[in-house]
Amino acid sequence: MGRRTGNGTRALLTLALAAAVTGCTAGEDTADARGTAARRTHGKDSAGGFAVQYRTGDKAARATDYLRSRRILEKAADRLNDTVKVPHRIPFVVRSCGAPEPAYDPDTGAVDFCVEHVDEIRDRVAHAGRAAVPRGGADAHVAAVLEETAYHEGAHALIDRLKLHFTGREEDVADQFAAVMLIDQGGAGDAKALAAAADYALSAEESPIDETDLLDEHSLDGQRAANYACYVYGAHPARHEGLVGDGGQVTEDRAESCPEEWTQARNGWQQLLVGRLKHHV
Ligand SMILES: [Zn+2]
After folding, report:
1. CA nearest to 143, candidates 61, 43, 63
2. pLDDT averaged over the chain?
């Protein structure tokens, strides 16, 4: 569910309707939940829906301050709640997990949003150098990747709590949900999805593939990067011709199928959430 080590149309589900290097196995609760002084819950509806809780106390102040000041998870939770009717309370719990592995935990019904993951994304782009930083700047890049993580883990939560029956691999389906949630935001959302693609590409560069990766439930980071870029291109081919071919993130061959891949991803989630979407997009 989590990243492995490491996240307008408009005619869509504006949705109402995909993170990295291991972690989708929740359950290893190594976090210290004692620091509850800074706990805060954010959410409009106390009866159900996504909400944010901070349980880091005085630890990990830098990462926590970053999340809070930009309201990254609060805005993601609002967007999820504006899109999907969820009768259950699904907390994004910001805490120290001991590893950069955010994950949805089916035992608690909560998403553990690890501060280590925030640091990892920031460090990765910082070490990548100026050339790797997207046009919007490093800060916007990190925020976009974290938003993608929130939607990817949110998808795992929705699949579990709403007992959604999907075809394919859950990790890929979760990435598709994140892509829909981002691309549905229009041009800004496209940029966010491409930031997620860039982060997966950076992760793939810094971590040569080994046997462990091949056994992981996620697609390889390089594949995830290509998938996100494919969805962005497939949603608006004319807008993103630059993504295709030499120097781009989508090969000429793959580009031909991207519009269909995007349509299938979006329609798949529309069908999964039929009757639960708050607005059609
Ligand atoms: Zn996952």
Report:
1. 63
2. 83
